[in-house]
């Protein structure tokens, strides 16, 4: 079935897409449907986002009925048995006991590049891993998509297991928690379900914003949470925004989430982005000229996943065509991606977004008015322009009604300082950054 599905998809997608994402998938068949095994989380996420719907459509078409498909990171079970001796030496994280941890061994602290934007998150995840159940419980990492939350979560799990191989860690995406629960309810073995979760030393649940509006799930999760918390078992969670801002999440759950430590993961700055690209290239054994890393980091600001996707595209095409990754080659290959990213953020776009956000008229924002309610948003917009575009201070001044470059500099400094001291302003900044970069 999968063979036939794949050959249909080959007609539908580019050679590179197929080579990079679809061909590496392994397939196993279970009672419930197909499981696709991806070599790493990046591939899995991409398949989930871009290819899952077409796959489901084609499978239904050729199979004559809908087929359930689950995505996992790892090696297909039968292949895993065959390859066990080899696997054990390369992956110390292979579970020895009944419970699969679902951890991706590639996501470790060693492969995580630290920068100002993720320093706290990394430190907290390490402390929790060194001292499960006792440092911070729960640990909640939150922030926009593709910023490294999942990576850090796996890294914490992997470190716990490296320290103590017998520790039971279970990683689940929140959809898996939901579907596991639904299945348990249908098959009337909720007791097993409960036991499965409550017997672990550390439970890692990714993207809990998916719990929003799912009341039965929240109820069950709430009880699981309490049981683990009381047992001093570690809980690590991620969410794509500050949980208080997730609608339809129960207040009592929200309040529990605040019992431990919540850390924001922010978009990495330019240096960190460049370092990440270089590190990822090195991990792939690819020689990436620094100029190319700089080009990519400059132009692609929003998230690391896109950056990594761009790198994969480069590498795939370079291999395919037997070419070296020069800056010209990168420009040419990533042209569409780079312009999309560059176009999205312009000074007028920032001005409009900021004006809308503060419910001001654009003309007021650009006017000479000095009242605080206008001047502060104006400074915000200038600081964002400096942060997100390549324009110089004088150019930004010009775009804001012909202001002097020292005014722009002052605005940037004011906003930077206020971000340290003024929580509301920091939130505004983060929201605006997110609105502009996603
Ligand atoms: P999130 O869960 O926040 O959406 P992920 O953890 O899935 O993001 O990260 C997306 C990709 O970017 C992953 O492949 C991850 O390895 C990579 N990544 C993100 N931040 C970093 C970092 N600081 N160093 C190395 N890789 C990173
Ligand atoms: Mg994630």
Automatic annotation (TrEMBL):
Give the function comment from the record. Answer: Plays an essential role in the initiation and regulation of chromosomal replication. ATP-DnaA binds to the origin of replication (oriC) to initiate formation of the DNA replication initiation complex once per cell cycle. Binds the DnaA box (a 9 base pair repeat at the origin) and separates the double-stranded (ds)DNA. Forms a right-handed helical filament on oriC DNA; dsDNA binds to the exterior of the filament while single-stranded (ss)DNA is stabiized in the filament's interior.
- List where in the cell it is found: Cytoplasm
Regarding protein family, the annotation reads: Belongs to the DnaA family.
Q: Could you tell me which residue ranges the AAA+ ATPase domain spans? A: 135-263
Gene3D superfamilies, alphabetized: 1.10.1750.10, 1.10.8.60, 3.30.300.180, P-loop containing nucleotide triphosphate hydrolases
Cross-referenced Pfam families, in alphabetical order?
A: Bac_DnaA, Bac_DnaA_C, DnaA_N
The question of whether Cytoplasm is a record keyword is answered with yes
Q: Which organism is it from?
A: Dokdonella ginsengisoli
Boundaries of each Chromosomal replication initiator DnaA C-terminal domain copy?
346-415
Protein name in UniProt: Chromosomal replication initiator protein DnaA
Instruction: Kindly give the NCBIfam families that the UniProt entry links to this protein.
Output: DnaA
Record carries keyword Secreted: no
Which top-level group of life is the source organism from? Bacteria
Residues reported in the UniProt entry to bind ATP:
146, 148-150
Subunit info here reads:
Oligomerizes as a right-handed, spiral filament on DNA at oriC.
Top-down, what is the taxonomic lineage of the species of origin?
Answer: Bacteria, Pseudomonadati, Pseudomonadota, Gammaproteobacteria, Lysobacterales
- Annotated region Disordered: the residues are 80-101
Region: Domain IV, binds dsDNA; residue ranges are 319-438
Domain free text = Domain I is involved in oligomerization and binding regulators, domain II is flexibile and of varying length in different bacteria, domain III forms the AAA+ region, while domain IV binds dsDNA.
For region Domain III, AAA+ region, the annotated ranges are 102-318
Q: Where is this region: Domain I, interacts with DnaA modulators?
A: 1-83
Q: Name the UniProt key words of this record, in alphabetical order.
A: ATP-binding, Cytoplasm, DNA replication, DNA-binding, Lipid-binding, Nucleotide-binding
InterPro entries with a match to the protein in the record: AAA+_ATPase, Chromosome_initiator_DnaA, Chromosome_initiator_DnaA-like, Chromosome_initiator_DnaA_CS, DnaA_C, DnaA_dom, DnaA_N_dom, DnaA_N_sf
């Amino acid at each position: 079935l999968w063979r036939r599905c794949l050959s249909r998809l080959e007609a539908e997608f580019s050679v590179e897409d197929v080579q990079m994402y679809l061909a590496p998938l392994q397939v196993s068949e279970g009672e419930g449907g197909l499981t696709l095994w991806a070599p790493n989380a990046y591939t899995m996420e991409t398949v989930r986002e871009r290819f899952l719907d077409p796959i489901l459509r084609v499978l239904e078409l050729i199979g004559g009925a809908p087929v359930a498909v689950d995505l996992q990171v790892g090696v297909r079970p039968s292949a895993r048995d065959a390859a066990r001796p080899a696997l054990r030496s390369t992956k110390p994280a292979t579970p020895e006991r009944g419970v699969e941890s679902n951890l991706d061994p590639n996501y470790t602290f060693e492969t995580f590049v630290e920068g100002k934007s993720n320093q706290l998150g990394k430190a907290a995840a390490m402390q929790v891993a060194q001292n499960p159940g006792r440092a911070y419980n729960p640990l909640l990492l939150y922030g926009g998509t593709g910023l490294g939350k999942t990576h850090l979560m796996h890294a914490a799990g992997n470190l716990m297991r490296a320290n103590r191989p017998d520790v039971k860690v279970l990683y689940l995406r929140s959809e898996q928690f939901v579907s596991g629960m639904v299945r348990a309810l249908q098959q009337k073995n909720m007791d097993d379900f409960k036991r499965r979760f409550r017997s672990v030393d550390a439970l890692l649940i990714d993207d809990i914003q998916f719990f929003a509006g799912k009341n039965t799930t929240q109820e069950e999760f709430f009880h699981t949470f309490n049981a683990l918390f009381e047992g001093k078992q570690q809980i690590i969670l991620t969410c794509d925004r500050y949980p208080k801002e997730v609608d339809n999440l129960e207040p009592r759950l929200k309040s529990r989430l605040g019992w431990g430590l919540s850390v924001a993961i922010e978009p990495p700055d330019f240096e960190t982005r460049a370092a990440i690209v270089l590190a990822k290239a090195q991990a792939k054994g690819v020689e990436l000229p620094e100029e190319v890393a700089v080009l990519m980091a400059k132009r692609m600001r929003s998230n690391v996943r896109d950056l990594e996707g761009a790198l994969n595209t480069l590498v795939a095409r370079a291999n395919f065509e037997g070419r070296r990754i020069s800056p010209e080659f990168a420009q040419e290959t990533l042209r569409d991606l780079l312009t999309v990213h560059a176009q999205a953020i312009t000074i007028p776009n920032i001005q409009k977004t900021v004006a809308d956000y503060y419910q001001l008229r654009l003309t007021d924002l650009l006017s000479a008015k000095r009242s605080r309610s206008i001047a502060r948003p104006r400074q915000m917009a200038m600081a964002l322009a400096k942060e997100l575009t390549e324009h110089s201070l004088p150019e930004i001044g010009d775009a804001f009604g012909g202001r002097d470059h020292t005014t722009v500099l002052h605005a940037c400094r004011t906003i930077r300082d206020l971000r340290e001291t003024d929580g509301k302003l920091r939130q505004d900044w983060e929201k605006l950054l997110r609105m502009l970069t996603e």
